What we know:
- This protein is α/β, with parallel strands linked by helices and 274 residues long.
- The chain is 39% helix and 8% strand.
- It has ten helices and five strands, in the order ααβαββαβαβααααα.
- A five-stranded mixed sheet has the order 3-2-4-1-5, with helices on both faces.
- A hairpin with a 5-residue loop joins strand 2 and strand 3.
- Helix 1 runs antiparallel to helix 2 and helix 8 crosses helix 10.
- It is globular.
Amino acid sequence: MSKTHKFLxxxxxxxxxxxxxxxxxxxxxxxxxxxxETFANNIKSMPPQAQFIDSLRPEIQSFxxxxxxxxxKPNIVVLHHTAQNSLDQTIKTFTLARTGVSAHxxxxxxxxxxxxxxxxxxxxxxxxxxxxxxxxxxxxxxGIEIDNNGSEAYSEAQMNSLLGLLATLKKKxxxxxxxxxxxxxxAPKRKPDPNNFPWKVLADRGFGLWYDQVLKMPPPEFDPxxxxxxxxxxISNVGAAVTAFKRHFLPTETGPSITPAxxxxxxxxxxxxx
Length: 274
């Protein structure tokens, strides 16, 4: 089986599994299947559809299929909280075309995991944002929504399932530990999620980085803003970036000011991202 056919098989198999798993969403599952088949047909077409160069004459362009290629793979995982009150409410939101939003996975309060978009496809979960030099996080990441209204604790069953999901994704796609982030990290001017999240628990399991227990005082010339940029934060709005950094690494602190604790943690943390 060729790599192309294997990729198409994975898409169709995932669609088939989803269609059989829930008659409640039969109508939206059908739309998902139709859209996936459209993508599959575009991938199979020879030459690829609408990929010729407009500024060149057709007679000097051709297509020869290489045997050395594969499907695109995600390299970042972005965590969200749903800001809704139930799994069913979130699924409904993600199956309404007018909302324009989705995620690859939703992790329920009781530990159930619902996949809503194939890993190889682009879900619409990140929106406008930036992490490092990446300004299209929807194309490079897997989005995971955690069933939580933003002010409640994350259940043990939910965290266990999330850790299992992250372990699978990290192994399957060889995702670096530094590339497990929150929505607030990539969109600090817009988003606070996941709020009150136990990031250190994830970092201790290899899903994210954390600072050491023993910290050294930074020298006077240390620039915390550059350190945040090295980690990945968009520093076009420094106050928003600092707030997002605190939300992730110093949850007992709030506000946009660069405190001594922020400087101390940044000085220890930023070399881990280099």
